[in-house]
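Students often ask why we bother predicting the structure of a whole assembly rather than each chain alone. The short answer is interfaces. A chain on its own may look different once its partners are present, and contacts between molecules only exist in the joint model. In this exercise we take two input lines together and write out one structure for the complete complex. Read the inputs first and try to guess which parts will touch.
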Amino acid sequence: MKTRPNYFAGIGSFVWLLIVAIPLYVMLSGTFQTREEFGDNGPLSLPTSFTLQNYVDAITSGFGRYFLNTVVVTVGVVAIVLLLVPPLSYAIVRSQSRAASFVFRFFLLGLAIPAQAVIVPVFYLINTVGLYDNLIGVILPTAAFALPICTLILSGTMRDITGELYEAMAMDGASPARAFFRLVLPLSKGGISTIAVFSALQAWNGFLFPLILTQSESTRVVTLGLFNFQTQYGINIPGLLAAVTLSMVPVLLVYLFARRALVQGLMGAGGK
Amino acid sequence: MTTLATRRQAAPGGSTPSRPARSGASSVGRPGFAWALPATIFFALFALVPLAAVAVLSFTSWSGLGDPEFVGLENWKTLIADPVMAKSLWLSLLFIVLGVVTQTPLSILLGVWAAGNQRNRAVLSAIYFIPLLLSSAAISVLWRALLDPNFGIPGQLSWLFGDGNLLGSQSGAIGVLIFVGMWQFTPFHTLIYQGAAKGIPNVLYQAASIDGAGMVRQFFSITLPQLRNTAITSIILMVVGGLTTFETVLILTNGGPGTDTTITAFYMYQEAFQSFDFGVGSAIALVLVVVATLISLVVVKVSGYDKMNSSLEGL
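Now the answer. The structure tokens for the assembled complex follow.
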């Protein structure tokens, strides 16, 4: 397998490539056609004209606002994750207390708590503290649910820092805080960028919390905008496709720059 | 307990004189529990306290306005007698099984292939990865548009799809949801199999070649057994993912036709946030929690991940 090409899997992977790529092609080519043309020629045909009107329509029907809201949510979530996860992972990896290993199990169990399962009390909680229909009310639970997987990824990275390095720091009589800022943080840059990208992706694509916890146009995020578009636009398929394409542009840009961090992190999720 | 503590205290001052210095050294970077506290409290507030609250709420009647009112086992009686609840559990099971059966063989093949060193592998893997980046909402809207009976692909390929209204029949709607799940999540599982397949020692294959084992034989006798733990992880993730599929159902089928794709997670949403029956919704949510927790306990047990030192296989 490692030395000879695997033709069987190779052919299979080519078939799968078509299954992945054809819908993406239809999506893109559809966005550049007029409604009439798209309806007449069918989705699989080659485009015969070119228009940007669908994008203009999508943007003028509120997408700018939705993007801004999603950016706010994403930045907020990433900030909380970056603030909370590194100290937590540090404690899990280096502390020898029973409490730390208990906390680790607690977060592992948290991996399996589906957001749907707690959405009713979260709705109650957010309502009670007056954060309903406020982006902060979306940020907090989204960040909380990003913690378990980010902790898993980052503690995996931190575990690779060898004991000798800590001992070297001990020669200078360093405190845990000093070891954290001078040793642990610099050496886990890779893991930290992975969790940043990963939590950003989760926040950007989040749907359930915004659906339940916001209501008005002014707090609508991109994913909900798409959902609303579908009911409003109905049969304007090129318009819908343009909205879908717009929603993925920022993610694709991040992917271009941070592909390594993301892929390695996800590989680690199963390979570790 | 006492003996352990005394032994620990006794050791440094005891027989080996070098111990005090070493224990001093390794205590650097031994942070106190306080380092874990902020994250733990935050997580407890939004995930664990609500988990306890959902259990309490399942014994109440609450419409979202005013305060929940205690009704005892009323909601549970309602659910046990509710044919839609029973059907939703059956549908969830069907979804999970069909998801695992369609995604596992495909992602093992693709993952093993992507772990090899074909020249165009990197480019293809990058394209495979794209569906994983898109939100479930975007994917569902995209596929709904692509499958539109009048303007979508089925209309154009009517020789293949008949009248083209795939989402109008139960088998069609379930088929679409399974296919879209496969389209969306195969890249992720491919990736974890790729990571694991890369870690299989090359020596095994060399030894097998010397023994005259062909490629197919090598795949079944070496690759598959070596991927066993990864497969467990991957399948568990598929199960939890299938159990909690929500946006896809809401956007693609809205639970229909009728209640033919109303899986449990979606039914919870309908009961709580569309019928404003938060008590019954909480009871359904609790069922989800119990199932998901059981699954996670199985993962932790089977993979041995809780021993905190596994760095090769399992979750």
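Check your guess against this: Chain B touches chain A through 120 residues (CB under 8 Å).
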